Amino acid sequence: VNTEWQTRMELIANMFAASNPDIIAFQEVRTLNRQSALQLVTPFRMNENLPIDGSLPMPTNADTMLGLVHELMPQYQWAVFAPMAGFSDGTQEGVAIVSRHPISMVRTGELNVAGPYSDKNTRGVLQARIALQKSEDSEPFQIDIFNTHLTYDDKQQCPMIVKLLEFLEQAKQESPTTHQIVLGDLNTYLTAEWPTDFMQDPFSRFSGHGANPCH
User: Fold this and answer.
1) Cα–Cα distance, 120 to 112 (Å, whole number)
2) Element holding 198 (H helix, E strand)
3) Quick check: bond before 21 cis, omega within 30?
4) Of 32, 167, 17, 144, the residue nearest 87 (C-alpha)
5) Sign (positive/negative) of CA torsion 103, 135, 183, 91?
6) If you average pLDDT over every residue of the chain, what do you get?
7) For the whole model, what pTM was predicted?
8) CA angle 42, 174, 205 (to 5 degrees)
9) Three-class SS of residue 127?
């Protein structure tokens, strides 16, 4: 999936230039060297008060594919990366959030569930709190972006979604007025929509397939 990354990233940058989003969530982001075994990558613009769960020194974005993202899309001045899986050569893969707007808080959560499942990859969620303003004269408000890459094992998705919702609920209890948006690769199948249904229930009228195994 990461073959010809330079060419693919240029095409991705052109697509984002046309749609002009404020925030982008990436999955399957690779580190480019064998030295990074840390929790998070430093944002392009570092707020000295930015709380990050992890006390180890952090490499720069040049150590990840985000360096190329910043080179091609410099308007996205804030970014965080959370490794979720390691490889035998020492490189890592994870999820990232890039933003035009300041990131004021970052947190990661672990979504792994035990059981006889086919997917043995580490799964998790990256949370970034971002400050927005509708206009220069309006009051700023905050949103929480949650980026995840769920398992491809549909049987494993139900308990994983439960853990994700628990993570969101904890964040909501800590900051009740902060809006929440979930982004990512949810690996949803047409024959197994129950996990995403469970996330929408009871708010969506499309969430009643009858026997939802996530309930």
Assistant:
1) 9
2) helix 194-200
3) no
4) 32
5) negative
6) 76
7) 0.81
8) 100
9) strand
